[in-house]
Amino acid sequence: MTATDEAGTVGPSARLLQLFEGHRLTPTQRRIAHSLVRHAGEAPFLSSVEVAELAGVSQPSVTRFAVALGYDGYPALRKQLRELGAGEPAAPETPDDAVRNEHQQAVLAEIEHLRHLAELLADPEPIIRAARLLAASRPLPVLGLRAASAQARGFAYFAAKVHPDIRLLDEGGSMLADRLEQATAAGATALLCFALPRYPRELMDALVVARECGLTVLTVADSAFSPVAKLSDLILPAAVGTGLVFDTACAPMMLGRVLLQTMCDELPGAEARLEAVEHAAAARGLFLE
Fold first, then answer.
1. Is the dihedral of CA 148, 152, 155, 157 positive or negative?
2. Residue by residue, what is the 3-state secondary structure of 95-140?
3. pLDDT for residue 40
4. What is the pLDDT of residue 77?
5. What's the confidence (pLDDT) of residue 4?
């Protein structure tokens, strides 16, 4: 996904994404890339030691990361980051920036993730492309296991109101491959996957099956450099919060709703289906209001 700022230029996070995309990176290197993207404003001014500390890896790993991108070493990569203008001066501190307790900090971190998502959504092309592929799939399987099952279930619940055939896949096991094959046999052409840390091994196995079935895999993940990237045709990134005991996923949920909104524009008869659902709900007295 590409982001633009108010002046119409590509934003710092997006510039780093464009620089890193298309390279085959190891899990450690993806972690470094993810850390640099999340700290795009300061990235061009960090030493290799500081980047290593930021990503929780060794300093030699940072050097190998730079070489994997085609540079002689980290200094050459940092020079490129500066030439790209990835860094932006930090905003002056305001009273709202005062140190807060861990609960407030977690909420503020989620707000920052949503701001970053808004920046990425400045370029609507990836979302439109994904929505068209998903809207055209009959049926449309929606996959999400363990931590991501809530995202998949929420998306599938609302998508079923406008899409004629949604198939939720939120449980692993040996039958998961069967259900993917059955969906393909029924006419499915695409798979929507929600992938959040920690990534289940069986999720990776399921994506292998999906690719073997010929499905186009579109994945909402916490990072463009997550392990599922190599098995996805299109990655839509939305960061998760890590400030609490259990991760928070406001941005992935919001991205799912944005994707669903765009799908509605691509689905013939979506408005009529939604109206029929509302009429049926009213007739059955499903809701208090």
1. negative
2. HHHCCCCHHHHHHHHHHHHHHHHHHHCCCCHHHHHHHHHHHCCCCE
3. 82
4. 92
5. 43
Query: Which residue ranges in the chain fall short of pLDDT 70?
Result: 1-11, 22, 86-100
Residue 9: predicted pLDDT: 47
For 208, the token pair is 């292998």
pLDDT on residue 38: 79
Query: Token pair of 185, please?
Result: 């046999």
Q: CA torsion sign, 131 to 137 to 138 to 143? A: negative
C-alpha gyration radius of the chain: 21
| Edge-to-edge strand ranges of the sheet holding 216-221 | 166-169, 140-144, 190-195, 216-221, 234-237
- Cβ atoms of 66 and 112 closer than 8 Å: no
pLDDT tens by residue, 221-236: 998 888 899 999 999 9
Handedness of CA 249, 250, 251, 255 (dihedral sign): positive
